[in-house]
Amino acid sequence: MEHLKKKRSFSWRDLLYKALLFVGTVALIVYFLPRDGKFNYQYDINKPWKYGQLIATFNFPIYKEDATVKREQDSLMASFQPYYQFQKSIEKDALNKLKENYHANLKGILPSTDYLRYIERMLKDIYESGIVSTENMQELHKDSVTSILVIDDKLANPRSTDHLYTVKKAYEHLLAQADSLHLNKDILRQCALNEYITPNLIFDQQRTETAQKEILSNYPWANGLVVSGQKIVDRGEMITPETYNILESLRKESIKRNESIGQSRLILGGQILFVGILIMCFMLYLDLFRKDYYQRKGSLSLLFTLIVFYNIVTAFMVTHNLSNVYIIPYAMLPIIIRVFLDSRTAFVTHTVTILLCSISLRFPHEFILTQLAAGLVAIFSLRELSQRSQLFRTALLVILTYAAIYFSFELMTENGLSNDFSKLNVRMYTHFITNGILLLFAYPLLFILEKTFGFTSNVTLIELSNINNDLLRQMSETVPGTFQHSMQVANLAAEAAIRIGAKSQLVRTGALYHDIGKWKARLSLRRINPVESIHIKT
Known about the structure:
Blueprint: H1 2-32, E1 54-55, E2 60-63, H2 66-78, E3 83-86, H3 88-104, H4 113-129, H5 134-142, E4 147-152, E5 155-160, H6 167-176, H7 185-189, E6 201-203, H8 205-217, E7 222-226, E8 231-233, H9 241-258, H10 261-289, H11 291-295, H12 297-319, H13 332-340, H14 343-357, H15 364-381, H16 388-413, H17 426-439, H18 442-453, H19 458-464, H20 470-478, H21 480-500, H22 504-512, H23 516-528, H24 530-537
Parallel strand pairs: 3-4
Antiparallel strand pairs: 1-8, 2-7, 3-6, 4-5
């Protein structure tokens, strides 16, 4: 009973580990996938379009250039009239204050009532024209506004800014007109006239902003339309200013469409569903056909770590527009899995990884076919990694496969390539060469993965089977007969393994060391009982 309980407990722990592995893998991949609506193309005027044929998948307007928009909006706003509220009470309060001060202390300053009547008349004229604050007047001059709309009793009447006063200008005007009536300016200055001059035109910001928005909302932002299914640009075509403007319009519209919360949630839900289905299918494959890998945590960890790593790198490069994804050595993944596990698992893992990475790309069809072909070639050319030269050969074959597949795509998509090979995308072929160079780093990476996940590669087995190894060398010197016996058993076992399709290098290495325990036991016995050891030797 206790044995069954332990087995059941271990089964639940194993199930929990796989569930967490599934959820963690899906969460990490989806988290890094681009879904912010970025327009992942690089283009410039008078430069060739380096991607495949671009077809509009929805209707969108052709927006005007930024310079054109600014010029036309500036032209509209040049004739715009801001709103100001006319405050009648300010004039009334100022005249009442003047009368009160006259009876209080101005009688002793002003020589006659002519001064009082002059000040009253001038204040009425100035307030009738309108007084604005110095800050508002500076804004009007800055925006080159020639007239404003003055709201008086719910009616908005235009008024020229040339007839408006500031406090300073009104004060100076009041003193300047005194000369025509032969009034003494010095006496007027003693009356503190600036106390009766207050802005009576108050800027109506809310009404002004509403009017500005209404004008801009009626502004035509577009001067054309691209319909769904229309060709925008093809590979190798020069980007003209018109095409550039259409591409910019497509970029703006794509961002706008993906900025809504509902659209973002739909994209997120679709990504979770797609990634979850693929990862679940991969786990079902392991459970059905590779149960030994499925039960071993080291194998599962290696497989899912590689899948997540390649998806994160791809998504990061696409999101930040870093170089080109074709420099990423995807063929390294099936090579690593082929060395540690087997060919079928290597191809299935490679296929799942490529399908997941394709979500981030604009042209997944071309990417999937190219990477699958390169992965198959890598698996076929590197059945057992035992020498560094094998990896060089594989890298070369992968480069040639990339080049051949991509060249076939160019022949199919380029209309004018028949007699003019100058249209070939040379940059892509340099990316393939870079990819092959990075593929060579699989050799040192194998050592790190081997130590991390507890695997034993053929490279390690070859190192262990080297007769110059310290342990084997000591064995050949101490017990040469046993050593020769082990060599013969190793050769026979390796030949048998080759005939039945087993791992010959693993069998050979194991056979070389099969008598190590017996040899070590004899050494121990010889140290303990020399007489007995002599008897054994004879």
